[in-house]
Amino acid sequence: MSDANPFPPSSLRTPKRASKWGDRVFIVLTGVGAALVILSLVAFVVVLYVGAEASVKQFGLAFLTNRVWLPASENPNIPGNIHGVVPFAIGTLLTSAIALLIAIPLSLGAAIFLTQQAPQRLRAPVGQLIELLAAIPSIIYGFWGLIVLVPIMRYDIEPNLKSWLGWTGWFGGTPTGLDVLTASVILAVMVIPTITAISRDTIAAVPVSQKEAALSLGATDWEVTRRAVLPYARAGVLAGIVLGLGRALGETMAVTLVIGNENASPTSLLSHGQTIASLLANQFAESSGPLETSAMIEAGLILLVITLVINVGARLVLSRLQTGRGVGQE
Amino acid sequence: MSGTSGTSASPPGDTIVRSKGTSRTALYTVIAVVVVIVIILGGGYAAGWFKTGSSSTGTGVCTSPASATINGAGSTLVAPLMDAWAATYTASTVNYGSVGSGAGIQDITQKTVDFGASDAPLNPTQRAAIPSPGVVTIPESAGAAVPVYNLPSVSATLKFTGQILASIYLGTMTNWNNSILQAVNPGVTLPNAAILVVHRSDGSGTTFVWTSFLSAENTTWKNTVGFATSVSWPVGSGSKGNSGVTQTVKSTVDAIGYVDINYALTNGVAFGAVQNPAGNYVVANITNIASAIKDANPTLPAGTGDWYNVSVLNAPGAHDYPLATLTYLFVYKDLGTAYGASYGLTKAENVVDFLSWIVTVGQNDSAGLYYIPLSQTVVHADIVTIDSITYNGAAISVCIP
């Protein structure tokens, strides 16, 4: 955000300093802080890899293509100890994608309303309320989901979706409320505050002159927003969406409570499912044996990789957007 | 952002610099106070101010060993009972980590605790992973799995047979008004609604009992799903822990699940009667589970033996509840060899004293918390096992009340 720093570091060094020694301590301290952050990321990857080694050896690349997750079995006639990440990777990506699909229009709408249309005295309180939503612990969302949202989805929303959109093949099965769709809706509710808050800040930072110019050309409110405001703010909005996506990918407790926790690929949006995060939350402490534990650690590593890839990708897009527009945020 | 830069660039010699003297004094005062507090607390900690356990006093005709700290971990199911025991048992401080049976077995395997607790016995793989000198298995309490359901329109207690439960969990019986279910529940108006099957999403001793029972009752189940602490479920949604299943069933109309009786009773969820081998439909309660454990009279292996096939399911008594189960503690059979010299004889004596206490005096705490006290046969077997625990090859003498 602070790319356009009006005081480049060199300009801060000109005044006489009382003690060089104090500065050195300060540099070392801050440097240690920065190094710790990087080290912990490296340590995460190393530790996860070490923990996952047994599973990597046993399954190799098949871990990325196996569609079953069978716990260890003491009965030789019943297959066991076969683990694959596919159902959970699908669950993770599917719930996050649908959550964004629901959350992006709503968040953008809220952000635009709060910055462009809402009466001045409403803007601050409503904005603060939305930020407050982002601070609610996820377990609370989960309980609300299980007790309030699940019955609504099961009796009111899902049967209708099934009868209207059943032909698409996305809404097969019996509506139970404990399914991929409910998990996506709760994720959407959880990421809306994040995306809204960041979008609102970016949109609010669009120079008034930009809007006035558009208005002076006779643009309507909609045209001002679409042609003058949103293009200017799109990098910041995208950054907000990426943050929201990050939250959705890793969200554990709320998803665990409403997704149905079935270790199989979802066959429709109304079937039970499992995300990588919910798999770990459910079974890590109570795995059926060392191999399953190791496989879960490998699944965790894959979640980390998915998150990193999405973040790096988003960063690339962001930097292209920023250089392309040639505008900073402030 | 720009605000920060502005402050940093402000010229030197303003009020901040002039007040340096006083702020330094304040800073030194704060540092001095913190250092003094740390020293006092550190000294206090060393002197044992913060130990919660009271000093040892005699509990029987002989004297208990000097106090020590005993660490255990495992089963969440017995956690409330363990907490009660830790509070009532005064000779030592007992810390119990409610981390789950699987994690408890892992902890005892890695020797990070003095005892591990699990709702299911060690399976052959887990037993093979235990390092020398091996562990003894001590059943310390009992429980039972009950079928809980949420049918607001049904006020009568539903009756289930093992076959019906197996069909529901296999996904072959899918509707509440199924004719077979109706036949064993004459006079009950069952709703025409899909059965929503709920099972555990984590590994669990309750699942072990439930699937063992279904395996005993239904060959299809036995040959395709089998019994274990976690299985590959044919149908249904998973919830984490007894509390998770209880909560899901409670909030989901038309759901069926299974939980330990303790959770069904404390949460007020309706649970059904299950047909026992004598042909009677039995609603689980403390009495008929206790009598089931007594009547099942399982051939108990030696403490060091393989407990994997010990079962108190399907007890023969006319009114015994068929889904009873024992829960287990695992302790190394030679504490000196297992943990090395730093363990100390005193600590070994404390562990053995605690174990002897819970299988005897401690059993009195069970019923009040909806746990099932052990039968005399099991207690006797336990005492023999606990007596056999050694320290570097020598017997450990403690008070067995």
Compact summary:
The complex is a heterodimer of chains A (330) and B (401). Chain A is an all-alpha fold. Helix content of chain A is 71%, strand content 1%.
Task: Give descriptors for this structure.
heterodimer, A: about 325 residues, mainly alpha, MetI-like fold, two-stranded antiparallel ribbon, 11 helices, globular, disordered C terminus, B: about 400 residues, alpha/beta, D-Maltodextrin-Binding Protein, domain 2, 3-stranded mixed β-sheet, disordered N terminus
Describe this structure in words.
- The complex is a heterodimer of chains A (330) and B (401).
- Chain A has 330 residues and is mainly alpha-helical.
- Chain A folds into 2 domains: 9-47; 85-329, MetI-like fold (Orthogonal Bundle), CATH 1.10.3720.
- Helices cover 71% and strands 1% of the residues of chain A.
- In chain A, helix 2 (20-59) packs across helix 11 (290-325), helix 4 packs across helix 6 (180-204) and helix 5 crosses helix 6 (180-204).
- The longest helix of chain A is centred in the first third of the chain and has 40 residues, at 20-59.
- The N and C termini of chain A lie close together (7 Å).
- The model of chain A is unreliable at 326-330 (pLDDT under 50).
- In chain B, the strands form 3 sheets. In chain B, strands 2-1-3-11-4-8-6-7 form an 8-stranded mixed β-sheet. In chain B, strands 5-9-10 form a 3-stranded mixed β-sheet. A two-stranded antiparallel ribbon of chain B has the order 12-13.
- In chain B, a hairpin with a 5-residue loop joins strand 9 and strand 10 (281-282).
- Chain B is globular and about 80 Å long.
- The model of chain B is unreliable at 1-19 and 51-61 (pLDDT under 50).
- Chains A and B meet through strand 1, helix 5 and helix 10 of A and helix 1, helix 5, helix 6, strand 7 and helix 11 of B.
